[in-house]
Each structure stands twice: as structure tokens, then as C-alpha cells.
Design a protein that fits this description.
The chain is about 85% helix and about 0% strand. By secondary structure, it is an all-alpha fold. The protein is rod-shaped, with a radius of gyration of 45 Å.
């Protein structure tokens, strides 16, 4: 923030010593240090409050986006419905294939019996 070097601080100390005097300088320095500390704490507090508000706004934005999107429960229900449909279709195809195999077994003559009787 401020670019204050050693020589600037030394010059400030000498001027303060001449203006304030050696008797009151420690008390003034202590009071100035307390005010500086209070100012820094207040600045840190304001900075923390601003960061907290920014994080809260970010969380609100994320929650709003998630509320607009499809929930996990809806996606699971849609997936379960699709899987149930696929299961029903698969079962019906398997049942039809089994029926066709049974019908074809009944309609074909027993070739193994004819082969056995022809050899004897």
C-alpha cells in the first residue's frame, strides 16, 4: 500500500521527537499503535464479511442452477421405467421364441426315432 522505507521511518521518528518531545513520545506512540491495530482489525473484519457475502452469493447461484436442473430422483425414476420396459420386452421375446421352438418341435417328426428303427 505505502512504500515506506527505513529512512522515512527514521525521519518520521526524529520529527515526532522534536515536535512532541521526549516525555510524551512513548504515550503518543502507544496510542498510535493501538489505533493502528484497531484499524487493521476493522479492515480485516470488513474484508472477511465481504468474502463471506461473495461465497454466499456463489452458493445461492449454484443452488439456483441445481434447482433448475433435473433432480437425481427424477433421473433414477426415468431409468427404472426404461429398464422395466426393456425387461418386459425381453421377457415377451423370450416367451415367443420358446413358444415357436415348442411348436416347431411338435410339428417336426421325431427324426431320432426313425433313425433308430431304420437301423435295426
Amino acid at each position: 500500500m505505502f512504500d515506506v522505507g527505513f529512512f522515512e521511518l527514521l525521519l518520521l521518528g526524529v520529527v515526532a521527537l522534536l515536535v512532541i518531545g521526549p516525555e510524551r513520545l512513548p504515550k503518543v506512540a502507544r496510542t498510535a499503535g493501538l489505533w493502528l491495530g484497531k484499524g487493521r482489525r476493522m479492515l480485516q473484519s470488513v474484508k472477511a464479511d465481504i468474502e463471506q457475502e461473495l461465497r454466499a452469493d456463489e452458493l445461492k447461484r449454484i443452488l439456483k442452477e441445481q434447482a433448475g436442473s433435473t433432480s437425481v430422483h427424477e433421473i433414477l425414476e426415468e431409468t427404472r421405467g426404461a429398464l422395466d420396459d426393456i425387461k418386459k420386452e425381453t421377457e415377451s421375446v423370450v416367451k415367443k421364441a420358446g413358444e415357436q421352438v415348442a411348436v416347431s418341435d411338435r410339428s417336426e417328426p421325431d427324426s431320432s426315432a426313425a433313425d433308430d428303427s431304420g437301423r435295426k
